[in-house]
Amino acid sequence: MNNINNASLLTKMTEESHQTLSIVNPANGQTIGHVSKQDNNEIMDAIERSQIAQTAWAALPAKVRAEKLNRWYQLIIDNQEDLARILTTEQGKPLTEARGEVLYGASFIQWFAEEAKRSYGDSIPAPSGDKRLVTIKQPIGVACAITPWNFPIAMITRKAGPALAAGCSFVIKPSELTPLSAFAIAELAYQAGIDRDVLQVVLGESPEEVGQIFSTHPLIRKLSFTGSTRVGSILMTQCAKDIKRTSMELGGNAPFIVFDDADIDKAVEGAIASKFRNAGQTCVCANRFYVHSNVYDDFVAKFATAVSKLKVGNGLEDGVSVGPVISAKAKENIQAIIDRFVDQGAAPVKPIQPYGGLFMAPVVLRDVKHGMKGVQEEIFGPVAPVIKFDSDEELIDMANDTVYGLASYFYSQNIHRIWKVAEALQYGMVGINDGIISTEVAPFGGVKQSGIGREGAKQGLDEYMDVKYLCFGGM
Length: 475
Fold this sequence. Notes:
It is a single chain. The protein is α/β, with parallel strands linked by helices. The protein is 41% helix and 20% strand. A 7-stranded mixed sheet has the order 12-13-14-11-10-15-16, with helices on both faces. Strands 7-6-5-8-9-17 form a 6-stranded mixed sheet, with helices on both faces. The radius of gyration is 23 Å and the shape is globular. The N and C termini lie far apart (60 Å). 50% of the residues are buried. Belongs to the aldehyde dehydrogenase family.
């Protein structure tokens, strides 16, 4: 990599501690690197340094912070190919998708560099002539994040971008499965002029211990987490003691709906993009498909044909569209879900091709019933169960029959139906005739047990700022 000296970086990390973590390529099981783990005292020391650095960082004019963020953005763009290869090697997604994630991740840094200069306050009409009322926005202080393995670059930049733009310092705990991307992206931030104590990456002795420190340390005023609802609930409970601000992007169970007036070919195209990106290992990917009975057979046939053309393999190989799943445990869980569907009467549309290692063939299951157990599970793998429905009312009831409410998708060409269904779906995000909805300019987040708070857009900056009311009397 032109700007990141990975060898020296990893050597420095491993010299600091005898406790090391081996990073494995899920495509072939080979160890690709080692990183050090910090003990609890080292992590708490990092938080204390972050507190000191935050004061100086917040004192910088917003324009100066924006300039540093813009330099970081440009370094990410300049190193897109090397970052993508690191990402694919440790996470497994196809190189084309990894390149896309790097650009997507960079977009948040660019967006919040611009938003840093637009954290406006308000002038409020006073109730009497001798007062002047205004509000200003100030950074909340030290913020931290726990990020997942499925988007190891974008989940960091989507959180760090607004935090740094707001004037917060930021401590990141990446997944133990994909930390190399985190250290690489942070190294570019340092080269852009962002102080090492303002943006820190830590790996603790265990994820649980780091979560405990982050959620209970008195200097940390904000915790952002992307992961399971179960863990998010634990972290929120721990944060409650200090009334610590949180934002949570948690589990999903996204419905993908095809009405009988939909463009079936476009729906199939959107379904492929939504379901099988990153081997189905995304929080917002379609998890269950509802297709009107009038077009069910047509959609299933075309969908299965398109899925059969997806190439499974090492993400560094040309033409691969589905890489490995992240771990043997993940593969075991996904296979168990398939088996449960089949045991209950569902059937693969085409024979399932067996793969060794952590690879799995994309599967389309037909004759799935809404009441089957797997419909309520977050599959997080390349499996598409397809359910038949007959009326809009029935569909809405089934689509909303889940504790989750992150993303949803539907295809229709009837404008009256589009508005009715979009408003009725109990989800934080709705894709209408589109299978890819994530963008830095729109708010990302869910309702119900899919979390609280929003990332991206103008709302993302507010997650890291406090509104202070100033009352001037005796004017």
